[in-house]
Specification:
Blueprint (H helix, E strand, L loop, with lengths): L3 H15 L4 H36 L4 E7 L2 E7 L33 H13 L4 H15 L33
Antiparallel strand pairs: 1-2
Helix pairs in contact: 1-2, 3-4
Organism: Tessaracoccus rhinocerotis
Protein name: Toxin-antitoxin system HicB family antitoxin
InterPro entries: Arc_rbn_hlx_hlx, Ribbon_hlx_hlx, Uncharacterised_HicB
Length: 176
């Protein structure tokens, strides 16, 4: 921190205040300021040292020192660890589901309008209805989302996934 800026500002303030007294007063004030320049710098250093000591008393560990180097003041941090952001805490994530087991078949009864809408969304995603439903169940079980379909209008495609390219010969249709 360069003290000259502050000393020059003090000189400018004193000059502005003494201009009312005429040129002789301004010249005398400038001579006095030139003579007290080292004292002004020492008083500024003392104020900064006291501030550093006061801050040190508030720190849990370490210290801050103000040191004069040439005409500049340096602050030295001793024993103070850099500030680290705490790890964000997330709610407990559900355990991943083992998908390596055998495939099972279930019967799912859907209202016709819901089935039609699900088929439309599956087609938009480039998937079979079964694959789309499996992805919806996977998303719900891995994110811990509790889904109540009754009157909620839940959007299974949020955030939107990029459409998958069709795989010729691999599309399966049927009932779920």
């Amino acid at each position: 921190m360069e003290l000259t800026t502050y000393v020059e500002r003090l000189r400018a303030e004193v000059s502005a205040a003494t201009e009312l007294g005429g040129p002789e007063i301004v010249a005398a004030a400038q001579r006095v300021l030139a003579a007290v320049d080292p004292a002004v710098r020492l008083v500024l250093l003392e104020a900064l040292t006291d501030a550093a000591a006061e801050i040190t008393t508030e720190l849990p560990s370490g210290s801050i020192d103000a040191r004069l180097r040439g005409r500049s003041v340096e602050f030295v941090l001793d024993g103070i660890a850099p500030h680290e952001e705490p790890e964000p805490s997330y709610p407990d994530q559900p355990e991943p589901v083992d998908e390596g087991g055998d495939q099972i078949r279930i019967t799912l009864r859907l209202p016709e309008g819901l089935k039609t809408r699900a088929e439309e969304l599956a087609e938009e995603a480039g998937q079979s209805l079964n694959s789309w439903l499996v992805d919806a169940v996977r998303d719900a079980t891995t994110t811990g989302v509790r889904i109540n379909l009754r009157g909620q209008g839940f959007n299974f495609n949020y955030p939107p996934k990029p459409p998958r390219p069709p795989h010729p010969g691999r599309r399966m249709t049927g009932w779920a």
